[in-house]
Amino acid sequence: MPSRSSPVYASAASPAYESYTPSASSSSSENIIYGGTSSYAPPRKAWVDPKSLANCGDASQIQGNVSPYVKQLILNTFIAYGAGDEHCFGHSVAKAVKFVDISAHESHEKQGRMEATTVAEILVSKSMLNGAGMLHGGCLAFLIDNCCSTPLVALGLIQNINGVGVTQSMNIMFHSPAPVGSCLRIISTSIAMGGRIMSARCEVINKKTGGVVASAYLNKMQPTISKL
Predict the structure, then answer these.
(1) Spatial separation of the C-alpha atoms in residues 58 and 164, rounded to whole Å
(2) Higher pLDDT, 49 or 154
(3) Which helix (H) or strand (E) holds 61?
(4) Rg (CA), the chain
């Protein structure tokens, strides 16, 4: 069994990253548990149902106050939907993502409405660079698209709503470059969840310098099943 400080990989870790250990989160899994039941069932036919996916990866070391069940379903969804198999676009990049915290809380500013936040980390490898030797903007957009979707999945599981959708729009602001070897901390938070439209925000931070690499807003929607 890995220690509490061991990284949690989306799937089997690349050998180049085996020695990388993210810092422990300040959140504790001993806080109030949200979504601790396995009785989740989407109210209508869903495009992707997190409960129906096979277990992928080990979520036991992810910090945060949501239940282990919810953490595992989010990891399953990220791997199956975000990473796909070895032939899918960005597969090796998605495999290198490590989730370190998944939490939820009632927002006082939103009159007690629930918010979910996920924190993931990744090391910038050579295969993620552009010709100038910096993290490629398209690779960063891929990471934001997938990581920023996870708090919506979490919130959906907590509220018994399907939070898996297709991306409708994504607005990214690039603030600073990230060279090879940079550890990026991707912090994503839900904003709103309606009947079909869902939104979240994201900040990508250089863990060593504290500088913001990118910030983004993401809108997702539930697709019409008959059109897929």
Answers:
(1) 21
(2) 154
(3) none
(4) 17
pLDDT digits (tens, 9 = 90+) for 72-99: 999 999 999 889 999 999 999 999 999 9
Strand ranges in the chain using DSSP code E only, listed in sequence order: 98-107, 113-123, 166-174, 183-193, 197-206, 212-221
Q: Is 93 left (phi over 0), alpha (psi -120 to 50) or beta?
A: alpha
DSSP3 helix / strand / coil % (the chain, rounded to 5): 25, 30, 45
Residue pair 72/40 in contact (Cβ under 8 Å)? The answer is no
Choose among 96, 94, 104, 7: nearest CA to 65.
Answer: 104
Output the pLDDT for position 46: 65
Query: What DSSP element (H or E) covers 156?
Result: helix 150-159
Spatial contact of 117 and 74, defined as CB atoms under 8 Å apart: no
- pLDDT in the model for residue 181: 97
Half-sphere exposure of 104 toward its Cβ, with a 13 Å CA cutoff? Answer: 26
The gap from C-alpha 159 to its chain's centroid, in whole angstroms, comes to 18
d(C-alpha 54, C-alpha 124), whole Å: 28
How much is the pLDDT for 13? 33
Residue with tokens 């929607």: 221
Distance CA 76, CA 56 (A): 5
203: left (phi over 0), alpha (psi -120 to 50) or beta: beta
Q: In angstroms, rounded to a whole number, what is the distance separating the alpha carbons of residues 20 and 24?
A: 13
